[in-house]
From TrEMBL:
Residues 7-223 form the AB hydrolase-1 domain. The keyword Transit peptide does not apply. Gene3D superfamilies: alpha/beta hydrolase (3.40.50.1820). InterPro entries: AB_hydrolase_1, AB_hydrolase_fold, Carboxylesterase_BioH. This is Haloalkane dehalogenase. The keyword Hydrolase applies. It comes from the Bacteria. Signal peptide: none annotated. One of its GO terms (molecular function) is haloalkane dehalogenase activity. The lineage of its organism: Bacteria, Bacillati, Bacillota, Bacilli, Bacillales.
Length: 250
């Protein structure tokens, strides 16, 4: 039997390296694909980020490579928004989806307030002390710090501005409920209220979605609790009981 395809979509300001450990564990069972999104990683200088174009690329890749196999789509943060977009645009293309910390309730006022500050804070992304501070906040281990540092230093200002704008204006499409996939939604217990409300909205907007809160963490599930994250994925795919640490969204 041909392996299922497992696609990992990274968050904003990082790239495919964030999934290294998951891919290493799961590659014997699944055909894993972790692309660099537009404006990130190996594509930092290619062109500025575009949510619409990123979604189109993922859809195109699936259509070219799935060949009737089961498709599992896993997204974190910005990548989770793109995963939601893929499900909403092509309801029949994904079989299983894991949506981690996706903002789907627009915050245009926040963009209006913060946008003027972004050009001023952008130079900090090149400073080693700031990179170290952010890495510690995200729960990154030392062996991936060089990846994060390189990512931060190569991120283009236009990509940062566009990414921030699209992230804060994204809202859950009405067509999301038509996706055929089984969907697992997660959010950190310490994340901001808008993120928890977004997770609840995604969960309640789809007949085959289930949502869980990850205790003790913020926007860092895939970094801080890798073993739990990987075990959760396996359980959900195999339709087994999820790890007891997770609390179902009510």
């Amino acid at each position: 039997m041909d392996k299922s395809i497992m696609i990992f979509l990274h968050g904003g300001g990082v790239s495919s390296w964030m999934w290294q450990e998951q891919v290493e564990i799961l590659k014997d069972t699944y055909e894993c694909f972790a692309p660099d999104l537009i404006g990130h990683g190996t594509r930092a200088k290619e062109q500025i980020f575009s949510m619409n174009e990123s979604t189109r690329e993922v859809i195109s890749w699936i259509k070219e490579n799935a060949n009737g196999r089961q498709v599992i789509l896993i997204g974190f943060s910005l990548g989770a928004q793109i995963a939601v977009d893929v499900l909403s645009r092509e309801p029949d293309i994904v079989d299983i989806a894991v949506i981690n910390s996706a903002l789907v309730m627009p915050l245009p006022w926040l963009h209006f307030m913060v946008r003027p500050l972004l050009p001023l804070t952008y130079p900090l992304l090149k400073k080693d002390w700031f990179i170290q501070l952010q890495a510690e906040k995200m729960g990154l281990s030392q062996h991936v710090l060089h990846h994060y540092a390189a990512e931060s230093k190569h991120l283009q200002k236009k990509t940062l501005l566009t990414m921030f704008q699209e992230n804060l204006h994204y809202k859950l499409p009405d067509t999301f409920q038509q996706a055929k996939a089984r969907i697992l939604v997660t959010v950190g217990e310490k994340e901001k209220g808008i993120m928890k409300r977004s997770a609840k909205k995604i969960t309640y907007s789809h007949p085959k979605a289930t949502g869980f809160i990850v205790p003790g963490i913020g926007h860092t599930f895939t970094f801080e609790k890798k073993e739990l994250f990987t075990e959760m994925i396996k359980c959900f795919i195999e339709e087994r009981a999820l790890p007891v640490e997770l609390r179902e969204i009510q």
